[in-house]
Design brief:
The protein is mainly α. It is built from four helices and two strands, in the order αααβαβ.
Length: 104
């Protein structure tokens, strides 16, 4: 589960959301990116643990999303050719609800 590739990073984020935020089932599918935006006063809409590794994973995920995309939190990972062509690790479309994020 390496965060240096799109599929590994999305698995890391799924793992954090499951263990750290205790999300279950449909909560993952219904999660929106806006729920993670920082407020102007620096507070966060959803609190994540003050663990540098966890924060780095989220920041990397946010930076690798295309600027114009659906508001869904989980986006479909790109393959290597798409990453090279677009520079983004994720497509602008939401992952399917039954995607096997946690499996190889």
């Amino acid at each position: 589960m390496q965060p240096d590739l799109p599929k590994g990073l999305i698995r890391h984020i799924f793992w954090h959301n499951t263990l750290e935020l205790a999300l279950r089932g449909g909560e993952h599918y219904n999660l929106k990116i806006q729920q993670f935006k920082k407020r102007k006063d620096g507070a966060e809409v959803i609190s994540i643990p003050a663990d540098n590794a966890v924060i780095q994973d989220y920041e990397l995920y946010f930076s690798k999303r295309p600027p114009i995309c659906e508001d869904a939190f989980y986006l479909q990972p790109c393959n290597n050719n798409e990453v090279e062509f677009t520079g983004y690790w994720f497509k602008s479309a939401q992952m399917r609800e039954k995607s096997k994020v946690h499996k190889s």
